[in-house]
Backbone:
C-alpha cells in the first residue's frame, strides 16, 4: 500500500497548518493526489502554493518513498487516522503526520512525560529513578526526549522496571539520526521492549535548535501531565512544561533547595502554581489513577531516639544536614555519626553535598 501521508510531508512547502487542513478535508491521503486545484483553494490553501503542489505531485515518487520507509522500518500515522494518539490530537498545533519506529502508545496506557536538565545532580538522578521506578511498576508509560541527563535516566529506569517508554526526537527517526548518537543503543532497547521512537520529521533530517524546541510540544501533547524533576531557569525542559500549561495539562514539579541553581526552574514553576510532587503516589492521585498501585516501600524502624528524629525529618523529602540539625536539635557530631552508620546500613542515602534521604 502506497504511503501517501508520508509522501505529502516531502512537499517543500509542507507545513503543520497546510497538512492539517489537507488531511481534515481528505481523511484518505490518496485523495489529495486526485483532487482539483479549486478544491485545494477552497480549504484555505494559497493559490500559488496550490499550483506548486499540483505540479509537484505529478513527479512525487510515492512508490520510492514508500519503499524507502519500509526498508528503514519506519511507519507513519496521519492525524486523520483513528490510531493517531488521542491526547496529541487535542492540542492546538498537532503534527499532521508522525513518523515512528516500534509502536505507538496503546490507547489504554496512561502516559506521563518526564523531563529535566542534561546536567543533572545526584539528587535529580535519584528522585527521577525513584519516581519513575514506581510509576513503571504501576503501569504508567513514560515519555521523554532521549537526551542526556534526566531524559535518559527516565527511559533507562522505565525499561529496567518493566515499563513502556517512548522517545520523541527533534530529528528523523532513522537510526543514524538518533541523537545523541551514544543513545542509539538506548533507542534500540526501547524498540525491543515494545516502546517507540517518534518524530514529525522526515528520515535523514538532522536536529536543529528549532526542531528540538518544536518536538517539546509533542512530548507535552502525548501525555496526561509533565513531570519536571530538575531544571535550571535556562533548561529546555521548561519549554515542555510551558507547552503543557498551554494545553491545559498538569505540570508536576519536584521541589529543590532555594539556593539550587539546577533546580531554580522547578521552584519557579512551583511559585506559578505547579503541583508539588514528593512521590509517585502524589502523581497517581493528581491524575486520578489511584487504582494503579505503587509498591509499598519498607521504612526501617528506628533503633533509638536519634534515628527516630532523623526519620521524621527526611520523611517529607531530602534534607541537607544543616536543616536536619536545625529541625532535630541533634548535635552535629552525634548526627554525623548516626548518618554515617545509617548510610552504611543502606537506610539513608547521601545524594551529594550532605543532603540525605531514604535509601
Residues:
Amino acid at each position: 500500500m502506497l504511503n501517501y501521508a508520508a509522501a505529502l510531508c516531502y512537499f517543500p512547502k509542507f507545513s503543520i497548518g497546510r497538512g492539517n487542513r489537507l488531511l481534515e478535508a481528505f481523511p484518505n491521503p490518496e485523495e489529495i493526489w486526485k483532487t482539483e486545484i479549486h478544491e485545494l483553494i477552497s480549504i484555505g490553501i494559497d493559490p500559488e502554493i496550490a499550483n506548486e503542489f499540483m505540479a509537484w505531485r505529478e513527479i512525487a515518487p510515492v512508490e520510492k518513498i514508500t519503499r524507502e520507509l519500509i526498508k528503514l522500518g519506519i511507519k507513519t500515522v496521519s492525524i486523520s487516522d483513528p490510531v493517531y494518539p488521542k491526547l496529541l490530537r487535542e492540542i492546538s498545533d498537532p503534527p499532521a503526520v508522525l513518523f515512528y519506529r516500534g509502536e505507538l502508545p496503546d490507547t489504554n496506557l496512561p502516559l506521563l512525560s518526564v523531563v529535566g536538565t542534561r546536567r543533572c545532580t545526584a539528587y535529580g538522578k535519584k528522585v527521577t529513578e525513584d519516581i519513575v521506578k514506581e510509576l513503571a511498576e504501576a503501569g504508567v508509560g513514560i515519555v521523554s526526549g532521549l537526551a542526556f541527563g534526566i531524559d535518559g535516566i527516565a527511559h533507562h529506569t522505565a525499561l529496567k522496571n518493566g515499563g513502556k517508554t517512548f522517545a520523541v526526537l527533534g530529528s528523523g527517526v532513522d537510526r543514524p539520526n538518533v541523537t545523541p548518537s551514544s543513545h542509539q543503543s538506548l533507542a534500540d532497547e526501547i524498540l525491543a521492549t515494545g516502546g517507540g521512537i517518534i518524530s514529525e520529521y522526515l528520515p535523514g533530517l538532522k536536529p536543529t535548535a528549532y526542531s528540538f524546541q518544536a518536538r517539546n510540544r509533542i512530548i507535552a501533547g502525548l501525555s496526561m501531565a509533565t513531570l519536571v524533576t530538575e531544571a535550571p531557569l535556562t533548561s529546555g525542559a521548561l519549554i515542555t512544561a510551558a507547552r503543557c500549561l498551554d494545553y491545559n495539562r498538569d505540570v508536576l514539579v519536584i521541589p529543590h533547595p532555594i539556593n539550587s541553581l539546577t533546580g531554580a526552574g522547578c521552584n519557579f514553576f512551583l511559585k506559578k502554581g505547579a503541583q508539588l510532587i514528593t512521590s509517585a503516589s502524589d502523581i497517581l492521585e493528581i491524575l486520578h489513577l489511584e487504582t494503579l498501585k505503587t509498591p509499598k516501600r519498607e521504612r526501617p524502624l528506628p533503633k533509638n531516639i536519634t534515628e527516630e528524629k532523623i526519620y521524621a525529618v527526611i520523611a517529607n523529602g531530602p534534607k541537607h544536614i544543616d536543616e536536619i540539625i536545625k529541625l532535630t536539635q541533634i548535635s552535629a557530631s552525634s548526627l554525623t555519626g548516626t548518618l554515617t552508620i545509617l548510610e552504611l546500613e543502606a537506610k539513608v542515602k547521601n545524594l551529594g553535598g550532605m543532603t540525605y534521604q531514604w535509601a
The chain has 16 helices and twelve strands. The mean pLDDT is 91. The CA atoms of residues 106 and 273 lie 31 Å apart.
